[in-house]
Amino acid sequence: MNGFGLALSLARRELRGGAAGFRVLVACLFLGVATVAAIGSLSQALLEGLARDGRALLGGDIDLRLVHREAGEAEASWLNERHLVSQTAQMRTMLRPDEGQDQLLVELKSVDDLYPLYGKVEFLPPGELSEALAEKDGRWGVLVESGVLARLGLAPGDHVRIGEAQFRIAGELRREPDRLTRGLTFGPGVMVSRRALDAAGLLQPGSLVRFHYRLKLDEGVGIAQAREELDDAFPEAGWRITDARRASPRVSRFLERVRLYLILVGLSALLIGGLGVGNATRAYLATKTTTIATLKCLGASARLIFATYLLQVMALALPAVVGGTIFGALVPFGLDFFLGDALGWRGAPGPYLSPLGMAGIFGFLVAATFALWPLLEGLAVSPASLFRSHLVPTHFRPGFRGRVTLLLLGLALAVLALIGAGDIRIGGVFVFGALIALVLFHYAGKATSAWAKRGGARRYPLLRLARTNLHRPGAATGTVLLSLGLGLTLLSAIVLIEANLDRQLNQVLPEKAPSFYFIDIPKNEGENFEQLIEAFPGVEDLQRVPILRGRISAINGKRPEDLVIPKHVGWVFRGDRGLTWTAEPVRGAELTAGDWWPEDYSGPPLVSLDDEVGRALGIGPGDSLTINLLGRDFTTEIANLRKIEWEGLSINFIMIFSPGLLENAPQTQLATLRIPENKEADLERRIAERFPMVSAVRVREALAEVTSLMGRIALAVKMVAGVALFTGALVLIGAVGADQQRRSYDSVVLKVLGATRGHLLAAHLLEQGLLTLISAVIAAALGTFAAYLVLVKVLHSSFVFLPLPLLTTLLVAGGLTLVFGFAATFRSLGKRPARFLRNH
Predict the structure, then answer these.
(1) Which residues touch 242 (CB under 8 Å, ≥6 apart)?
(2) Which candidate, 200, 141, 148, places its Cα nearest to that of 174?
(3) Whose CA is closest to 657, among 637, 675, 671, 673?
(4) E-assigned strands of 387-525?
(5) Using 50, 70 and 90 to split pLDDT, how confident is the model at 516?
(6) pTM to 2 decimal places
């Protein structure tokens, strides 16, 4: 029989006795692999669902979006000659019942007779869309979402007013195929016909209206070909093109970002589980010391023994990894049950090999990496040392081959983490952070053992016994610190990030933010609007500026598509941005480069650019920006870079222009103000009566929507972090279980010398309490630093150290780990001396 066959035979014989010592290994691997596989499969199912239903979600094969203006005659004629075209228009406006003074900001969409090209509009009571939106008895039909009915106390058949037109509620809008194209919404949706929109008089020059042209391509015409033809025919049209291959880039980016953070947390749980693998392997080998020593005495080679026990570890890791991947593969099938139509589309459940394969490979690599050290340690020492290992500690350093193998396995884990993250920069930070944390907690374990050796606490026998347990031969001090420390670090960082974001949304922003945003103020009504506001009691900090929208089409003559744009400023180039102009310096503006133009400036157009964008792109004063406004390109010179504080939600613009370029363009005005909450409704009604075209956005309600979304994301992250902490608790149980025989021996000796079970339990609680305290202190520092990096460097937000949520979290988590540790050691400390001594 060859060496591998003999090792396999020995491994099978060893496993016939059961695998009770590997329960923690199986549990840790299963939890970690299942978490990573479930997150990857779930996100893939959602993205595949987006791609599968791309046409219906987009409303066509291709969507052309224009802001402020409709397609010109030449553009419309060209499109209609080649494709079936459906036009919609979307904007925000106010809806008011005919009776009463209430009103509501809504997301209005007008549709033509061809809408929808794909999919179907669902509403109650059901019927034909054209009949529901038709004019009857001088009132146009309107479909409204349930939020309109609930908040205004309306029902189908009631009458409402939008702009200058009267409407009857024809039904409750339940589903529209292109719901995701709305983008960020501040109110429930309503749907009217295009003719009704014209009757309402809402299409004023400069109004913030998003016109969508959905194209249904002829058979044989591919999306890529159609896009190329559009670019060739109208290279400067200024429309944003989206196709059914990626119907909602905004949603896709959001899902990718959430997936990224959840995957990193899941990988952390799997790494913590690796410590459980190491503990379980060490504990199992501790029960086999006599067998290993005997085999060595009989001439068995170290390679044979190593292969025998490595095969056992991997054989037991196999069901854990397979079970975890199967669980992860099944998770997407629960999408429809739990989410239904809440997302606006349905996922595409199925086994996705990429995330499942990554989770499985990662699981096996973790098992092999963390099992390798205890295997090398247990098999490299001499038989004599093994026989007396329970009394004399063994000191082990792997040989050259062992070190190289560990290094290669570690590099493989790092590379796989980078691939799994999908973002080299963030994945690299995770790998580097995990390495730093492992090193810090490793040396913290050594320092703790060294401190415990110094003695002390002679007046307190229980404390002295607890300290002795921290440095005695085979003590799991380092392992416990690693497992608890990593789990608590992860939880600390998540809690601090969430607490800071919650503070921003619920405390800082409400204090600094204005009460209202008023949009679509007609240019010729600006002065009258301001006079009404100034006459209203309680109004403070009124700001009113002109606004229109445009997009950056070139930087120093180069198109954004031809430049390498850092991800954190990529949003500036996606779609249109708000623009304004002023002669006087912006209030509170902090210039970081260049100078402001004179108040009487009348030269070539200049622009003040956000400092963060300028630094990210490496541009500044003297460089040029080309802006596309209403389909025409204008080139401006950067005059200065300006630092923007976004936290107050006051009026701010990425680009502010000098006078002379934008004044004659179709435009509206934007205003913000502050007013006591009890007067908001009265002011809103007064504005609606005098300026029915103006839409009011209550900042308080918008923040509540954002807070609700952030809360749901935070819950998902906390659930995954909870898996990591639970895995850490399992590692603690495994560490205690690995030392169960030694603890039983010590407890029996101490009981013979007069100690009670209560004394031993108290000493153990002190020991675990010291380890938990040290872990918590280090984890608090590391978690705080990690939270700072994420908030300031990644999310570009502010960071404030919040001790209360951090301390609360660490106390609760630390208390739970103490309970787990107590449960694991309770049995070993309860051995009866007589029975134990008879059996040993």
Answers:
(1) 58, 62, 63, 65, 248, 249
(2) 148
(3) 637
(4) 516-522
(5) confident
(6) 0.69
